[in-house]
Structure formats: C-alpha cells, structure tokens
Amino acid sequence: MLPRPRFRLPLWAPFALAGGAYVVRSAVRGFQFRPDLPMDAIVFVLLIAVVVMVRWQRGDDTRPDE
C-alpha cells in the first residue's frame, strides 16, 4: 500500500502552481506568453482531468483536515 499524505491542498492550488510555472517559463523566454500548442493544451487538459478525479475521490468533503 502506498503512503497517503496527511495534508490536502485546496483544489485551486494546482492551477496557481501551473500558472506560476507558466509565468516563469514565459519570463525566461523573454516574456512571450504565447502558448506552445499542442503541448500546453495537452498539459492543461491533463491538469483539469487530475483535479476532477481528485474532486471526485474526495466526495463532498473538500475542506482540508484540521
């Protein structure tokens, strides 16, 4: 059995992390915010799929454990 983490991130956190990574990548490229299609689209769709699966797995309880 795999170990389960004791903390849970809010569902908005993966989007903030991905957005931050995108801004850093754009800054490294000289502030060109143009997406690299199709790779950025694939990563965005996979991010949404993972967040939806996590939301489904959590059920109604989306609050972090206190």
What fraction strand? under 5%
Label the overall shape: elongated
Mean pLDDT: 88
Q: Provide the helix percentage.
A: 40-55%
Order of helices and strands: HH
Distance between the termini: 24 Å
From the alpha carbons, calculate the radius of gyration and give it in angstroms.
Answer: 15 Å
Counting DSSP H or I runs of 4 or more residues, the number of helices is 2
- Residue stretches low in confidence (pLDDT < 50, at least 5 long) are none
Tell me about the largest β-sheet: none
Count of DSSP strands: 0
Q: How would you classify the helix and strand content by structural class?
A: mainly alpha
Provide structural commentary:
This protein is mainly α. The protein has a domain at 13-57. Helices cover 55% and strands 0% of the residues. The longest helix has 20 residues, at 39-58.
Give a brief outline of the structure.
With 66 residues, the chain is mainly alpha-helical.
Name a few traits of the molecule.
single chain, 66 residues, mainly alpha, 0% strand, elongated
List the helices and strands and how they pair.
Elements: H1 13-28, H2 39-58
